[in-house]
Amino acid sequence: MGPHPAVAAIRLAVRRVLHDLLTEHHRAPAAVPHALAHEPSPPPLVLVACSGGADSMALASALAFESPKLGIRAGGVTVDHGLQAGSDLRAAEVVQRLRELGLDPVDSVAVTVGRAGGPEAAARDARYAALDTAAERHGAAAVLLGHTRDDQAETVLLGLARGSGIRSLSGMAAVSGAGGRYRRPFLELDRQTARKACMVQSLPVWDDPHNADPAYTRSRLRHEGLPALEKALGKGVVEALARTAQLSRDDADALDSWAAQAETTVRDAAGQLECAKLYALPPAVRRRVLRRAAIAAGAPAGSLFARHIEEVDRLITGWRGQGAINLPGKVVAQRQGGRLVIRQG
Ligand SMILES: Nc1ncnc2c1ncn2[C@@H]1O[C@H](COP(=O)(O)OP(=O)(O)OP(=O)(O)O)[C@@H](O)[C@H]1O
């Protein structure tokens, strides 16, 4: 008898990603010192980022099962955010569970969570910094994350509520980070399947109380927003939102490359942006050109919002002699004799 369907599903999802990694590894093996150049390159190491929750425990179990069959080394990292009493004990417990699955090396990394951008963003920044460091320390080829289709649907809704265009609707990528380090094998799998896979394999899981705390936006969305949407629109809404993410990502990539090309055609010989040529571009491309120009002038991408770009756009499409527009990073945009000048002032 084969494994339970939920276990088969998580293993298949992980196997696909491991196959991709092996193909990439054989195509571009890591640089080796000259003396070792003739020896076979060591098998790649893949780490699972594990909170101890159902999604990442399911991921760890599937990695532990699939990696030896493909000659891949598998390890794990858990990050202790230090946000709850006893979080160090919980991290130690996760380490033990990962070792019991046969993963090696397994690390627990304690981080200090700052305040920048709010509690969720600060914890995320600290977590990714710790995962980056762990991956580099061990020379890992990839770090697997347990984001599911449900997480993706939540991310799309959060982007939609920000009102900043299709890039923010495109959610999380299956491959991201420096050199494609982060992989999300469960992005097309629902949370229930991951949880079920843990249950049937008798894997103990830890339910993060933050996930149920209504003080957090994502938690409210998970427990109130999405269930209300499902009630109104039907069960397929999560899948539809996840599909929206993929379609939006492709559209956003296409528009970005269009804008990169257009930018070279709207500058004069001195490199200044010509307002008439900007005016002739489709709005979606023009706004991207303006955003690129503002970032090139020194505006930090993370602080540059849709409303900033709309104001700059009005210098082109709604010109009535407005003054200079102040942008984040002390960048100023102003119209001067048919040219749009964007510079740090
Ligand atoms: N403390 C942590 N240590 C290591 N990895 C983490 C930690 N917290 C989250 N991750 C990684 O990020 C992924 C997404 O985490 P998040 O908390 O957003 O989702 P989740 O649905 O609660 O996941 P999980 O059920 O695995 O905790 C996790 O599946 C895991 O891979």
Automatic annotation (TrEMBL):
Residues reported in the UniProt entry to bind ATP: S51, G52, G53, A54, D55, S56
Q: Where in the cell is it found?
A: Cytoplasm
The UniProt record lists the EC number as 6.3.4.19
Q: Where is the tRNA(Ile)-lysidine/2-thiocytidine synthase N-terminal domain?
A: 46-224
Question: Pfam families per the record?
Answer: ATP_bind_3 (PF01171), TilS (PF09179)
So where does this one cross the membrane? none
One MF annotation (Gene Ontology) recorded for this entry: tRNA(Ile)-lysidine synthase activity
Give the gene symbol.
tilS
- HAMAP family registered for this protein in UniProt: tRNA_Ile_lys_synt
Which family does the record claim for this protein? Belongs to the tRNA(Ile)-lysidine synthase family.
Q: Does the keyword Metal-binding apply?
A: no
Q: Where is the tRNA(Ile)-lysidine synthase substrate-binding domain?
A: 273-340
**Which PANTHER family does this one have?**
TRNA(ILE)-LYSIDINE SYNTHASE-RELATED
Its protein name is tRNA(Ile)-lysidine synthase
The cross-references to InterPro entries, in alphabetical order and at most eight, read: Rossmann-like_a/b/a_fold, TilS/TtcA_N, tRNA_Ile_lys_synt, tRNA_Ile_lys_synt_N, tRNA_Ile_lys_synt_subst-bd
| Role according to the record | Ligates lysine onto the cytidine present at position 34 of the AUA codon-specific tRNA(Ile) that contains the anticodon CAU, in an ATP-dependent manner. Cytidine is converted to lysidine, thus changing the amino acid specificity of the tRNA from methionine to isoleucine.
User: Catalysed reaction per UniProt?
Assistant: cytidine(34) in tRNA(Ile2) + L-lysine + ATP = lysidine(34) in tRNA(Ile2) + AMP + diphosphate + H(+)
Q: Which UniProt keywords apply?
A: ATP-binding, Cytoplasm, Ligase, Nucleotide-binding, tRNA processing
What's noted about domains in the record?
The N-terminal region contains the highly conserved SGGXDS motif, predicted to be a P-loop motif involved in ATP binding.
Q: Which Gene3D superfamilies match?
A: 1.20.59.20, HUPs
